[in-house]
Amino acid sequence: MNTIGAILTLLGSLGLFLYGMTLMSEALQKVAGEKLRSFLAAMTSNSFKRIFTGFLITAIIQSSSATTVMVVSFVNAGLLSLTQSIGVIMGANIGTTCTAWLISLLGFKADISVIAIPVIGFGFALMMFKSKKKKSWGELLIGFALLFLGLTFLKNSVPDLQNSPEVLEFLKNWTSYGIGSVLIFTLIGTILTIVLQSSSATMALTLVMCNNGWIPFEMGAAMVLGENIGTTITANIAASVANVSARRAALGHSVFNLFGVLWAIILYKPFLILVSKIIVAIGCDNPLEAGASGTSILYGISMVHTLFNVINTLILVWFTNQIVKLVTKAIPQKESGEVFRLQFIQGGALSTAEISLDQAKNEIIHYAGICQRQYTYAREALNTDSPEKFDELYKKLEHYEQVTDRIEIEIANFLNQVSEGVISEESGRRIQAMYKIISELESIGDSGFNVARILQRKNIHNLKFDEHMIKKLNHMFDLLDNGFNVMTENLKLGYTKLNNISNAQDAEESINEHRNNLKEEHLLNLENNVYNYLTGVYYIDLINECEHVGDFMINISEAIMEIK
């Protein structure tokens, strides 16, 4: 019964540590989400900047997984190239070592749990404010306190080896196989990281085990190598539902870490000797010697993590292009002639909700392009005299209407998932605007098929538009085409660069003016029997349908401005 209680306490302590880590990371993304996004997009012009950016963001948000998934989503959204993403991932690997040092320096040297409860109290007080930013700071403080509270419980829940010698004997059986033991503990570190989905949690466990004498320094170092393999799984899971470029970025992360573990195992003894010399140089015991202090072993494990990632980055930064070629060859681009295919969203929202909105933005721009293509076919249907050609175009327009419906649903489902994640107030406004935009684009798709149905009814009644009517309708399609171009330009600029929508207002005014002129002319033509009444009905129906499209277009530009 005591054993079961000890296991449950250990799992609960680990859960508290993980929850604290998650809460702190998410709160930091809420506080600085927009800035982190802009920083990541801007600071990727050269290798040094990419590595520094990855390091800094990971050091701030205390999660290499969050940074890596953020990078994968940027690649998926087309905002980062594959070469840029690999540099940022290298920096993220160095940044994640800050967690180990934070735990080593504070978690074991000082009893942070003493101040944890007051910090939670202060954080809770901040959460009482209406300001979302203050609430986020409150969550950050509570997450920080829970992280170290979980670490304290984790330390206390580990059995005392003097009272449980069988544990030591069990572990000794696993540490006497030379390089085999190194591989066993590397595998243990990998599996634990995959199961816990956090290299930081596995690192905390490793430090606790070494601090309490469960495993020697050499085996703790092997677990650290395993953690660097296991941490790549998160990005690969996120990328499994993303596009080809994102999957390549995640594979690049795996190649980077696997290569590092390979050289580290081959040069295991020299590598650990180098680490021990650095630890001795800073005034601590040699962690490789029997009887080394807990502090020197903790610092040694943290130094293994840091030195491994720094050396690996210094080696592989010169081979970034070769890594890009390797992952490009491993994951080839498959050609698809399918009309309906999301280009930037091919799965659920990634863990960094703020960044996912850039995917949605690019997908909406792609959606607008599909809608514009539909009206190219509508114009062809208007101008053809061939029944066979018209039937072919009618089926295309019907298919496009279904496509626009499906894309709206896919993007809306994606936005629903994003809104459930960690988002800032500004991103909340972006999501609301995007819902409105995709609804208007879907209406444009419906109108495209309405045009086809009006033309079909005209053909069923064996009616024809004269040259003058065709010319006027073609001019209306010219105005729509201009409206589409303006709308797409405004979507690309987005709320940060779009200062006014006078271009969209001018486009809509031109469509309305042409509609009004044609209506007046139509009434005169009916009076003068220029064409029969039913032909006039279909003619004016087409004009009105096109005018509705102009309304949908201006609504989209207005929705972008409303974000501000």
Helices and strands, in order, run as: HHHHHHHHHHHHHHHHHHHHHH
Count of separate DSSP helical elements = 22
- Taken together, the total number of domains comes to 2
* Fraction of residues in helix: over 70%
Number of strands: 0
Give average pLDDT, whole number: 81
What structural category do the secondary elements indicate? mainly alpha
Straight-line N-to-C gap: 60 Å
Low-confidence stretches: 165-169, 335-339
Q: Please indicate the percent range of residues in DSSP E strands (runs of 2 or more).
A: under 5%
Radius of gyration: 31 Å
Oligomer class: single chain
Major pleated sheet: none
> Judging from the principal axes of the Cα atoms, what is the shape?
elongated
Describe the structure.
The chain is elongated and about 110 Å long. The protein contains 22 helices and no strands. Helix 18 packs antiparallel against helix 19. It folds into two domains: 328 residues, no CATH class; 210 residues, Methane Monooxygenase Hydroxylase, Chain G, domain 1 (Up-down Bundle). The protein is an all-alpha fold.
